[in-house]
């Protein structure tokens, strides 16, 4: 039986139809000049969906639905026009265009977030201007701005009011009236109201309850409870993205459903009934929004979570769809910019999948398995199928492991979330009680992290998919047809188990990579994201590994593709996470010999982690030493003894970077310079101590940072410059000026963010070739 029945016994689809109409109305205004591909995808889905739903209703209701739909679309279109005009009108945009100095009274509307290094440090946060003075003129208004300030503003609490002096400039975001750069430190700050102070205390209590637990689980618990993901390692976030668990680390309807559902259960246990249950739910929803912050993404998550609660309650088949349509309309009326946001589209699609697809799949699976297990399988699968086309449009991938990962992680999500919340509450009463609840929450969070890491480490956790119109249309059709036809298939045990077994094989068995690595390869730069993971071919399945990147899974997969089974030597240039955190991937299923490191043991926690893996035998390299490992000849060129190991670059200068082990490698006559992350100060020392150095291949230092001794790099005579860098990284790497200088010096530039794995191949007669694999 199809979950999309349109007869009189099917769900009432008038609410979703009006929600689609509301979405169309907002998009008519906001997506005329599409700011992202989300607007185009959402517009197509909304138009097709609304037309189909309208025409599916009985003829006598069609006229009414069309009329109300037109009114709803007009309302959201009008709201979008008003918001657009509001952001571009008034004195603030005019003052911003002049970069005028102003004195302003403002209210802080979001928590300060650290700026990435390319902006020079500091913090950013949202605010609403209430009063603006420029010269003798003053104006009272309400204008949303982005504040970009120095580190002294990092403690400004959400909801506080303050008067600042600074300079306005225009914002590229059409939702904002301007960007405000205050001068100096914050002066007198009027503290936020009592509700905001209570919310801040609870957020702080959640963190305090798990402070004594190990990382990264202590950082995941606040993300599960209220979306506070500050400090969550980039590697954990990457594992969650690959395994389809990202929704757990952000404020989503799942958070609200678990927390409010738990609150209702407690209320029922103490005798709360009837309308008081509704009142308790409202209190829980409002409290959740305050604790997680009243930003549009939080309000959207709260609305979708409320829809989910209605959908699972009595009469949910009718109330859920009606609530979904009403929630979409209300959200777009208040925040029309949500119509072109990815998060909003994913929330709506996931909720729609749960409401319309999951019930039919649950009934089908329940014919041959327990109903609770059928629901546990059907709900995440339906949400994933509904979101798949949009996820593919964003990431270029179709996740294969998401449903399995969500199913395995699900038993730990609720205990981690509820125990984390209780820990925060109890922490305000007595620390031992809060710590006890925090211990439970952190243990469950550790299990979720293990599921994410294991899922991301499977042979084929996702399939690459095109992001062009034809590819996305095909995927949308496949998902729609699959949603309709899967019910009869899932009702039959044999075909379902056979398809499940096939999926397991795809997930576990690596795909063949014919022709990789190419014959005669000498050096490989692995695509490990924002970091270095390098391999030198020592012959017959053996390689010298120099740095291991930030991701053990990516490093392991790269070495697997290269056919590396034995690593007699690992050299770690320095102890930053983007060079050493992937070391467990080198050890995965391989025989590993010596580990050699730099002499500067910073940061100490990563030194300890490396020593644990190396069983305490990691050795500090000696300047000037040479050695041969199979076909690889190595010479240590740095760090030069006696050099002051501190950076002068404003970007990310540090002792560990300038203390990088610098290697000159030679394989099959190809000379390769591996300088780690040395910065200009150390590069100048190398230039003085190595006059006339010439190489064939240059691994560009520090991922192509703009802080380089460019004249020295271009003097090396390399034919090939290789940049190991993560796509869309927050540091602005690699710098365009540096790439232009390298190209002007006659070097062919290859980079992992564009090319994937990059391999250098030695050709007879001294020639070089490059092969890449994404």
UniProtKB/TrEMBL annotation:
Alphabetical list of InterPro entries matching this protein: ComA-like_MBL, ComEC_N, Competence_DNA_uptake, Metallo-B-lactamas, RibonucZ/Hydroxyglut_hydro
Key words of the record: Cell membrane, Membrane, Transmembrane, Transmembrane helix
SMART domains noted in UniProt: Lactamase_B
Positions of the Metallo-beta-lactamase domain: 530-727
Membrane association type: Multi-pass membrane protein
Keyword Isomerase in annotation: no
Domain of life, per lineage: Bacteria
Broad class of where this protein is predominantly found: membrane
Localization (cell): Cell membrane
Residues that span the membrane, as ranges: 12-32, 38-56, 245-267, 274-292, 298-316, 344-361, 373-394, 400-426, 433-452, 472-491
Record-given protein name: ComEC/Rec2 family competence protein
Source species: Nocardioides jiangxiensis
